[in-house]
Recover the amino acids of this structure.
């Protein structure tokens, strides 16, 4: 099964990091060298991919049928779903990026007895997708406490709000529960729904399992096996200030966490995860439907090819058209008497 | 038309955001590493030093539950036989006499603010 393939890879990566960090030199490799490489690959290939997209021409607008387009004054335009102005597009993009609006419109198709096809609203993917992304963001922002010194104020606020329930010590973060819960839902969705399982590839399971692996090792480090956070901060802060130092007190599980993140960064620009940059370039979301107000010139038009009107076309091919019996708008001037002239008349009368 | 003119500024913002810790490190380099003060009163902590470094909060939580909820003993002995009180204020802070020079050294660095001191008394700081 495809999920086992992906699971196998993730488990192998975890084992590799754990064993790798135990051999001499492995700690520097998995703690410093590979993370630097992974980050470089992430930045460089992310930029390369987006620049590749940026080079693609935008020859026309793609109006969507999701809402009434700008039309006659007495027809009410749907300014969010079919905007004709930049501000409308910004509104549509903000809702898309921050609230996943098109996913909210997700529907589910079912076949009932009959057979009858029925469509219903389906909000679970939207809900859990949103929960997953926001908890991921919160966790990454909270992790800034390991990279910055002094730690900026907003990180303190996030930590305080996230540990608001004051359960246990170290205090339980709500986002950790939401994060693992949402990931489990997204994975089970692919595993349990037969139609989704049918279209799921290893490339769909792998990122889910990889991120689940990162989340589980992180949660284990905080609540179960405990690691020396001070030494890890010295390493993490050292990585960003150019003076990394791997203390002996950092335990093996940290290297698993770190290596899976390195793999995630490296894999990112070449995978479906690039929807992070891609969502901003969705043509059906970021183009105003203003085709009736603005002329959009196709950028790959050859400027040496001049427009060719129908009148000009007929002027060029009139004789051939007449010969082939095609109707013309302007009759050819009768030619001075010649043998062919009657033949021409014949065809005409036939048609 | 091409939209490169809008995409490149967006890309620059993205690169600025993901490299935030790097340039933040340049503008705000603090360079102070935590150096918790060693207690003079005893040689050993209530558990091994490695365990305390990583898991002292787990231990405190266990003490709290054990004493407040299960009526556990308020006294304990270190491995070398020194007696101590199983208490945040009367135990930990008896050996580690300064919160500021001990607990806060690490906590400020790691951005942890235990809420324990909302109720528990802090030892008087020397200055
Ligand atoms: C993709 C990015 C990452 C994700 C999704 C992630 C996820 C997590 C999660 C869910 C936790 C549990 C505790 C918490 O929520 O704070 C955690 C803890 C931890 N992570 Fe990450 N992590 C990421 C990147 C990193 C990086 C780059 C480092 C390395 C320097 C790191 C080091 C740690 C450490 C040391 C802990 C334990 C913190 C503690 O005991 O409080 N993580 N991680």
């Amino acid at each position: 099964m495809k999920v086992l393939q992906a699971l196998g890879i993730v488990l192998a990566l975890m084992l590799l990091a754990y064993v790798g960090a135990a051999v001499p030199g492995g700690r520097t490799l998995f703690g410093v060298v590979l993370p630097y490489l992974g980050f470089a690959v992430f930045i460089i290939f992310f930029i390369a991919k987006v620049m590749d997209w940026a080079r693609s021409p935008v020859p026309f607008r793609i109006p969507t049928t999701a809402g009434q387009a700008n039309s006659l004054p007495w027809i009410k335009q749907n300014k969010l779903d079919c905007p004709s102005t930049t501000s409308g597009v910004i509104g549509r993009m903000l809702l898309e990026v921050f609230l996943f609006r098109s996913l909210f419109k997700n529907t589910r198709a079912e076949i009932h007895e009959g057979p009858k096809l029925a469509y219903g609203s389906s909000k679970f993917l939207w809900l859990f997708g949103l929960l997953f992304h926001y908890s991921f963001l919160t966790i990454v922002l909270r992790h800034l406490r390991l990279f910055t010194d002094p730690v900026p104020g907003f990180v303190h606020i996030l930590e305080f709000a996230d540990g608001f329930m004051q359960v246990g010590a170290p205090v339980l973060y709500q986002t950790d529960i939401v994060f693992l819960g949402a990931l489990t839902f997204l994975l089970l969705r692919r595993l349990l729904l037969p139609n989704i399982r049918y279209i799921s590839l290893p490339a769909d399971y792998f990122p889910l399992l990889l991120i689940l692996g990162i989340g589980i090792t992180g949660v284990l480090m905080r609540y179960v096996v405990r690691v020396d956070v001070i030494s890890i901060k010295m390493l993490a802060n050292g990585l960003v200030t150019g003076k990394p130092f791997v203390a002996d007190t950092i335990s093996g599980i940290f290297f698993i966490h770190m290596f899976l993140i390195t793999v995630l960064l490296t894999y990112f620009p070449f995978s479906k995860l690039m929807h992070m940059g891609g969502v901003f370039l969705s043509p059906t979301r970021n183009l105003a439907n203003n085709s009736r107000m603005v002329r959009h010139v196709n950028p790959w038009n050859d400027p040496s090819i001049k427009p060719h009107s129908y009148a000009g076309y007929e002027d060029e091919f009139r004789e051939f058209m007449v010969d082939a019996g095609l109707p013309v708008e302007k009759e050819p001037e009768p030619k001075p008497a010649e043998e062919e002239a009657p033949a021409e008349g014949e065809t005409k009368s036939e048609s | 038309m091409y939209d490169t003119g809008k995409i490149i500024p967006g890309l620059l913002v993205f690169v600025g955001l993901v490299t935030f810790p790097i340039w933040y490190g340049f503008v705000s380099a603090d360079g102070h590493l935590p150096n918790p003060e060693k207690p003079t009163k005893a040689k050993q902590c209530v558990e091994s030093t490695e365990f305390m470094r990583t898991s002292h909060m787990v231990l405190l939580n266990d003490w709290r539950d054990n004493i407040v909820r299960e009526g556990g003993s308020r006294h304990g002995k270190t491995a070398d036989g020194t007696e101590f009180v199983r208490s945040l204020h009367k135990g930990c802070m008896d050996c580690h006499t300064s919160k500021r020079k001990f607990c806060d050294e690490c906590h400020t660095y790691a951005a942890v603010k235990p809420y324990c001191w909302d109720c528990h008394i802090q030892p008087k700081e020397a200055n």
Observations:
- The radius of gyration of chain A is 31 Å.
